[in-house]
Specification:
59 residues; alpha+beta; Alpha-Beta Plaits; two-stranded antiparallel ribbon; 4 strands
């Protein structure tokens, strides 16, 4: 599965990187997906659900 972060919506709070550091990293104040495709979909989906601004999506 592929995950993406909408850089316009991302506020860089770090919730995703904190809950799923093997998939998300804060770079230049914004979240970035660091592996594609995502090896741990459950972890990434949890980060997606926990994003306070809904900046994470998947296909």
């Amino acid at each position: 599965m592929h995950f993406a972060v909408d850089q316009e919506l991302c506020i860089g709070c770090g919730a995703c990187a904190g809950s799923c550091p093997e998939v998300f990293e804060i770079i230049d104040g914004k979240s970035t997906v660091i592996v594609d495709p995502v090896p741990d979909e459950e972890c990434a989906s949890s980060a997606e659900d926990g994003c306070p601004v809904g900046a994470i999506s998947h296909d």
